[in-house]
Protein: Metalloendoprotein 1
Organism: Dorcoceras hygrometricum
Amino acid sequence: MLGRSSRYDSREGLKASARPPELHAYSLVVLALDDVGSADGEVLGPRVPSGELRRGDKAELVHKLKKHLIYLGYLGTDNLGIENNFDRHLKHAIEKYQEFYGLNVTGIVDMNTITSLRKPRCGFPDFLNPQAHSKSLYSFYPGNPKWTKTQLRYYIVPTTPDPCIPPIEEALYEWQRVTPFRFPIAGNSFPDIKFSFQCGQHGECAEAFYPESRSIAHASPPPDGKIHFNAYMRWSTAGDADAFDIKTTAMHDIGHALGLMHSAVEDSIMFSQLAPGVTRNIHADDIEGIRVLYEF
């Protein structure tokens, strides 16, 4: 069972029990696109001799790639076309993806692009409108939802493992240090930001949490403020190479809970891709984004 008395070990991961449904949230997921290709071409290679996909190719995995790029906001649903054909719309979507992530812009799904697609990342799209695909730094949710107060009461549910509590509170402090927000502790009655570890399908969340799941956490924008961590994942408080850093993940999702979407700045806390062992701090781009959003 996952509880305050549960043993926490980044090598073993966290054990979990079922949790009640929660409201809508977006997921921070690990996108290992094995059906799209692997970093060494083992999956892509047998289908395409060059180990690459380009305009004019036909393959079953093209449909999976299109669906994935639609989800990330690089391709419109009306541009699906013939599902297994690598058409001009997909080429353009790949070019947009490559531009956003600082890759060589070719429109070809090469090994560098595949490697990028396979990196752990946030499940929230890079763009909510496929037409708005210019490479930007910080960004906001449509309609710029934000809090109308700077005192945001937080609650960490009692089933949270004890070793995870200080890093979560440190993550709140990091945002408090660079903004006018203050985060007093709240009880369970209507906190503004609520942290919990979850497993299985919960509410309307985009991704369920299972032992084999690649989703690590998710958060919802203002005024919902729910932040969920996957109880089955391996978590670390010290940047272990095979575990996700709890403080870094919490800072990212607090950013979402405050109203920030993704940044194209790779060192920013709101950069969409995350890998085990990676630790980040709040970046000047994150600070500028929150100040612009709230006019601090």
